[in-house]
Design brief:
The complex is a heterotrimer of chains A (about 250), B (about 325) and C (about 290).
Chain A lengths: L2 E12 L2 E12 L3 E5 L6 H8 L7 E6 L2 E2 L5 H6 L2 E3 L12 H10 L5 H6 L7 H10 L15 H13 L5 E5 L7 H18 L2 E5 L3 H7 L2 E6 L2 E6 L1 H6 L1 H9 L1
Parallel strand pairs in A: 3-8, 3-9, 6-7, 7-8
Antiparallel strand pairs in A: 1-2, 1-4, 4-5, 9-10
Chain B lengths: L2 H16 L6 H26 L7 H17 L4 H23 L6 H19 L1 H4 L12 E2 L2 E2 L3 H24 L1 H11 L1 H6 L4 H27 L9 H14 L6 H15 L7 H15 L3 H13 L25
Antiparallel strand pairs in B: 1-2
Helix pairs in contact in B: 2-7, 2-10, 2-11, 2-12, 3-4, 3-5, 3-10, 4-10, 8-10, 11-12, 11-14
Chain C lengths: L1 H31 L6 H17 L4 H29 L3 H22 L15 E4 L2 E4 H23 L1 H11 L1 H6 L4 H27 L5 H16 L4 H21 L8 H12 L14
Antiparallel strand pairs in C: 1-2
Helix pairs in contact in C: 1-5, 1-6, 1-8, 1-9, 1-10, 2-3, 2-4, 2-8, 2-9, 3-4, 3-8, 5-6, 5-8, 6-8, 9-10, 9-11
The chains are: A alpha/beta (about 250), B mainly alpha (about 325), C mainly alpha (about 290).
Chain lengths: ~250, ~325, ~290
């Protein structure tokens, strides 16, 4: 079981305030790692440092053993790393199908071949399959902006999966989604995980979602890891309870 | 192509083909100018409307293209070769200029292109051995193809129109391809686009280089149209003019530059009453337009038609740029 | 050596003027994300206000005050209320386009409503020469330097030592946080616009005797402001000052020792060099990518 993601001693400060203060952990292939913690504990900052959106002040990030600290997000994506965003980020002016084709097209051939080749970059069928997988087929040709919030969230996740990534980082995927769609989302994530043997790292606030989905959980507070283990253990850990209640 | 686009295309096509039969020579000259400027504006639309970058050098690229064609044809090279060279040269220069400028943020390209326009003007003016300096180049010949001369005004018009059509189709093809999708992603949400593996820098640079290349091709037609060129035609004034054309027509809309170029060519005529204050009026109109409908005339028509035809209101009703940008404080995209 | 000192002094004088223009430009950017492409025209225009006032009979010093006042109202207050505020909701790009259109509008207005000919402009002090170690230095250069330096020092004291100034700085660095702290952010932004107008007017008074009042002045002055701001580091007021001075000195030296035909190209070369070698400018911080 190889290590897909390795974070060593990551540090990120904003003007004297350490948002991430020496965080180290590893993610093994096939895991679903949950990262939880009260607001302001540094979860999103951690993600952004791993994904190249921010440059850390100190520490290292390695993907499959290869040093990727500070790499641009698009280069990381080509290495097989995908993400979803906390704030919805689909392209409202494109259709659902076009959103998915866009999500995968940069992995098809070279820039030049994409200019000369077919308009859908050969991804028409793959997009349709992804749409079916997420049960959005009835809305495939609509503009993404016309979908409900929950459906857009599903589309967001679908887009992250289009390029067949090895590692997917999900930033609060359950936020603002109603219960029905939530269980559908969780079930689809588990299905994808089994089918593709993908590795997930999930930031979440909703405990039930984390408990049901994740194989291992990290707890972050004030920029540091305060607990780590199976979901059930974490739930009972007094340090964790204090961190949440104390805020 | 949506309903607005289709209607616009048909109207433009009819107008364009029929026009020379109803116009005097000066009128034909004006619509030839429209066709030439539309090519340059179309290029700038790629840079501005699709990639979201302000370029103040499009006029300079027209100038480089014009001088390239003028000098090469007068040195004996066939027009087709000179024309291709004009486009290729401007594409290359655009790439070289954009490469450093687009690696940073804050609309640095705008400043770099502003400075570049000054530099080009100085070179055209000072290097008399090459460009004949302020005296300009006279007697630029109009090309002939297989015996068909473009010297008569209507012939040159149809030649320009044909070139415009070919270049428009090529641009249309590009925008229908995955590149077009990438451009939409680039201007709507560059952060998301990056996370999907889209190299935003590369696509922006490509848009700018192609846009500049189109400017060069426009210049290649400009020279035989006016048959006399001198440096001051290609200074900041033309760059501003082209920029305003794209904005007023509707930046990010495919036919925006066509509409904008038409207005820019006709406006001085309409404003004859205003005795040359037309630039002030034009600039004031642009400012007003930016406040109320930043997506230009086509954007306005788009919005109105969506309301009138009661189609589904979507984010598209806000125009290609919507209101998604502009809230980031310190750090640009 | 003597000529070098002359060039240095006059370069510092021009540089100080560039610094004023660049500082105003940077202030606007910092507080309200406004990239003012009309900044050069903002410096070109007050000279014409002053000349018009003098034509109406006012003595120079009074006309200058009128010019500054008009600049504050038109280029400060009206600019903010009529152009910037309505535009900001649409994003940065429409605002950039508007300021480009505005620069065109102001330039053509000066040409059409006043004159297309270069107009002589009165100097601050009578033009005499001082001899200093064999170098001939004009009192004009020294006066320009004195006024510019005094203005910058006053601005610095205002920004650093007064409560108002610190509130403005807080607004520039983090408007959300400033709002939470109870700082009237909108008023701070307004002050930035007014200060910019004053700086532009002062720069106008200082530079017009040298360049003559011409409607095309905006192009060169605007370019100088942009390049100076970029050299110094786009988001630093101190950087703008440094950038302005460096640009002024280098520009003057290059004009003397290199071809004068390509004088106007010099800012471009510096700009390209800075972007290639140190894009964050001399004093700027390396930009973070956004979240």
């Amino acid at each position: 079981m190889s290590t897909v993601l390795e974070v060593s001693n990551l540090r990120k400060s904003f003007g004297g305030i350490a948002a991430v203060d020496g965080v180290s952990f590893e993610v093994v292939e096939g895991e679903i790692l949950g990262i939880i913690g009260p607001n302001g504990s540094g979860k999103s900052t951690l993600f952004n440092c791993v994904l190249g959106q921010l440059r850390p002040n100190d520490g290292d990030v390695r993907i499959d053993g290869r040093r990727t600290t500070g790499m641009r997000p698009c280069d990381l994506n080509r290495l097989g790393v995908s993400r979803t965003f906390q704030l919805l980020q689909v392209f409202p002016q494109l259709t659902v199908r076009d959103n998915l084709i866009l999500a995968g097209q940069e992995h098809q051939g070279s820039m030049l071949s994409r200019l000369i080749g077919p308009a859908d970059a050969g991804l028409g069928e793959a997009a349709d399959r992804m749409i079916a997988f997420f049960r959005l087929s009835h809305r495939a040709d609509e503009l993404a902006g016309a979908l409900s919030y929950g459906q857009q969230k599903l589309l967001d996740v679908a887009m992250a999966f289009m390029a067949g990534p090895r590692l997917v980082l999900l930033d609060e995927p359950a936020g603002g989604v109603n219960l029905t769609l939530l269980s559908h989302l969780r079930e689809r994530l588990q299905a994808y995980h089994v089918e593709r043997k993908a590795t997930f790292v999930v930031i979440e606030h909703q405990m039930e979602f984390v408990m049901a989905l994740c194989t291992r959980v990290l707890v972050l507070a004030e920029g540091r890891i305060i607990a780590e283990g199976a979901p059930q253990e974490i739930r009972r850990d007094p340090k964790v309870i204090e961190a949440y209640l104390g805020h | 192509m949506n309903r607005v686009g289709a209607a616009a295309a048909v109207s433009i096509a009819i107008f364009a083909v029929a026009a020379p039969f109803f116009l005097k020579p000066f009128g034909i000259f004006m619509i030839s100018m429209w066709a030439v400027l539309a090519i340059a504006a179309m290029g700038l639309n790629l840079t501005l409307g699709y990639a979201g970058q302000v370029s103040l050098a499009q006029g300079a690229f027209v100038g480089i293209g014009a001088y390239a064609v003028a000098l090469l044809t007068q040195a004996g090279y066939p027009f087709v070769l000179a024309f291709a060279a004009a486009g290729g040269l401007c594409f290359a220069v655009g790439w070289i200029l954009g490469y450093p400028a687009l690696r940073v943020q804050h609309h640095y390209l705008a400043f770099v292109t502003l400075a570049f326009t000054t530099l080009v003007f100085l070179v055209l003016r000072n290097e008399e051995w090459l460009t004949n300096g302020i005296y300009g180049i006279n007697g630029i010949a109009r090309p002939a193809f297989f015996g068909w001369s473009t010297r008569p005004a209507p012939n040159f018009y149809f030649f320009s129109l044909g070139t415009l059509a070919v270049l428009s189709i090529a641009t249309w093809w590009m925008l229908r391809s995955p590149w077009g999708r990438a451009f939409v992603a680039l201007r709507e949400n560059p952060i998301r686009a990056l996370s999907l593996g889209l190299d935003t820098r590369r696509y922006t640079l490509m848009a700018f280089a192609i846009g500049s290349g189109l400017g060069g091709l426009a210049g290649g037609l400009y020279a035989p149209l006016v048959q006399f060129i001198e440096p001051s035609s290609f200074a900041l004034g033309m760059s501003f003019n082209l920029l305003l054309m794209v904005i007023v027509g509707g930046s990010g809309y495919f036919f925006g530059p066509f509409v904008g170029a038409l207005i820019a060519v006709l406006l001085p005529e309409w404003m004859r009453i205003a005795q040359g204050y037309y630039l002030i009026v034009y600039a004031a109109l642009v400012i007003v337009m930016m406040a109320f409908c930043p997506s230009g005339i086509l954007g306005l028509i788009d919005r109105v038609s969506k309301v009138v035809l009661r189609s589904r209101p979507t984010a598209a009703a806000l125009g290609p740029r919507g209101s998604a940008q502009g809230s980031v404080h310190e750090h640009g995209p | 050596m003597a000529s070098f000192i002359q060039l240095l002094v006059s370069g510092l004088a021009t540089g100080a003027i560039y610094a004023l223009i660049a500082v105003g430009f940077t202030l606007l950017w910092q507080t309200s994300q406004t990239i003012n492409f009309a900044q050069g025209e903002f410096v070109m225009l007050p000279a014409f206000f002053i000349l018009a006032a003098m034509n109406a009979g006012a003595p120079f010093w009074f006309a200058a005050l009128i010019g500054i006042a008009l600049a504050v109202v038109i280029l400060g207050l009206l600019f903010k209320l009529v152009i910037v505020d309505p535009m900001l909701q649409h994003g940065v790009l429409p605002l950039v386009i508007s300021t480009i259109a505005l620069s065109l509008l102001l330039k053509e207005s000066a040409k059409d409503f006043y004159s297309s000919q270069a107009q002589p402009f009165p100097t601050l002090v009578p033009a005499t020469d001082i001899h200093f170690f064999g170098a001939v230095i004009s009192t004009q250069s020294l006066a320009v330097l004195a006024v510019a330096v005094a203005t910058i020092v006053t601005l610095h004291l205002l920004l650093d030592r007064t409560r108002l100034g610190r509130a403005m700085q807080a607004t520039a660095q983090n408007p959300t946080l400033a709002l939470i702290l109870g700082i009237p952010v909108r008023r701070m932004v307004l002050y930035a616009f007014l200060i910019n107008a004053v700086l532009a007017a002062i720069a106008s008074i200082l530079i017009s005797p040298i360049y003559l009042a011409k409607f095309t002045n905006g192009e060169t002055l605007g370019m100088a402001a942009f390049v100076a701001a970029i050299i110094g580091g786009f988001n630093q007021v101190r950087g703008a000052i440094l950038g302005g001075v460096i640009l002024g000195v280098l520009d003057n030296l290059s004009a003397a020792y290199l071809s004068s035909q390509y004088r106007g190209a010099f800012p471009l070369l510096i700009l390209i060099a800075i972007i290639l070698m140190r894009p964050q400018g001399l004093l700027g911080r390396v930009e973070e990518r956004t979240v």
